[in-house]
Specification:
The chain has 339 residues and is mostly helical. The protein contains 15 helices and 6 strands.
Length: 339
């Protein structure tokens, strides 16, 4: 095998056949004859090594990243990690290397960003490459992320904000709190989705349709709003909701909690406090996973105190003198045994 250089419009291109019989046609991206010859020799050497020792001997991370992207892989955060591992063989990359590369790629970021934008894309490329037979699979330990504690609020939170926000925003926030729907679904609502106090959402985040029943107070507010931009609440994008909500919180002197905490999170928490089970909450709010509701949205407050109170009542039925006398008898028995 010998690859040849062909010049097309002044640019060097590689032509020939590899050891396996595969035709080679690629640009060398240079106009310089010397550089073209060096690149030709390098490509030829790699092809021979791949044929003799297998692709794991030559495939680099950046080359694998290109192939991964061309195969439809997610490329949103791939570029920075590809730059970190440019020219490095897949077989030489260890989990520790990926963790350190994520920190270098995003030096001012937090642990959550290192996980999402560093570890995840790098691990995806390597595990995809394993499926191609180029390297072994890899598993990388994530950085520990401290999850912020969510707050649940009641009607008093929206009552405090109502004087400082437009009617359409108040109606939207009330919709989120009493139906448990996501803000993205609410923002996309069109007038023809509504019939009386019923709302039919054609497609939710999990890809399924959903039917929502609005309480009378909410239904009246929603029907009183003039649609705007062909949308019930009139916000083309959720960013407009956040900006207006922040201003209202500042004027009202209340903490800004976004839309999820006063809405979907508070919906689940209030139903839990009313004695609802996770399965009913999940059905009412459109959660696909009952376990997710139990693990994230349920916050049984004052559980230690409540448990103490329950067992206190149980043991209160026992005679204190009887308990004390049994304890003393036990101590006397221990003295006797010791003697």
């Amino acid at each position: 095998m010998r690859l040849k250089i062909k010049w097309i419009n002044g640019w060097a291109h590689l032509h020939g056949t590899g050891p396996t019989g595969k035709r080679i046609r690629q640009s060398l991206k240079t106009r310089d004859p010397k550089q073209a010859e060096e690149k030709r020799a390098a490509v030829e050497s790699k092809l021979w090594k791949a044929d003799l020792y297998g692709p794991e001997e030559i495939v680099t991370f950046d080359a694998a990243a290109v192939a991964y992207a061309e195969d439809g892989g997610e490329i949103r955060f791939l570029m920075k990690m590809a730059q970190q591992f440019e020219g490095i063989r897949l077989r030489d990359i260890k989990p520790r290397d990926i963790r350190e590369a994520a920190k270098r790629a995003y030096p001012k970021a937090n642990a959550a960003t290192w996980n999402r934008q560093g570890i995840t894309p790098a691990q995806s490329v390597i595990n995809w490459s394993h499926e191609q037979g180029w390297c072994a699979p890899i598993k990388v330990r994530r950085f520990k992320v401290e999850k912020p504690k969510r707050k649940a609020v009641g009607p008093e939170y929206l009552d405090a904000l109502e004087p400082y926000m437009p009617d359409r925003l108040f109606a939207l926030m009330l919709f989120l709190q009493v139906t448990g729907r996501r803000v993205g679904e609410a923002v996309r609502m069109e007038p023809h989705w509504i019939s009386g106090n019923h709302v039919h959402i054609p497609k939710t985040k999990n890809g399924e349709a959903a039917d929502v029943v609005m309480p009378t107070v909410l239904s009246r507010l929603v029907h009183a709003i003039e649609p705007r931009h062909g949308l019930v609440f009139g916000y083309v994008h959720r960013s407009s909701v956040y900006n207006t909500l922040r201003r209202a919180c500042k004027k009202a002197g209340v903490e800004y909690l976004g839309t999820h905490q006063p809405g979907r999170h508070s919906f689940a928490t209030q139903l839990l406090n009313q004695g609802w089970q996770s399965s009913r909450i999940a059905k009412a709010g459109g959660w696909k996973s009952v376990a997710l509701v139990a693990q994230i949205y349920e916050h049984p407050e004052n559980a230690p105190s409540e448990a103490s109170e329950i067992f206190g009542k149980i043991w209160a039925s026992r005679d204190d003198d009887d308990v004390t006398s049994k304890s003393n008898i036990h101590k006397l028995q221990q003295l006797k045994d010791g003697a």
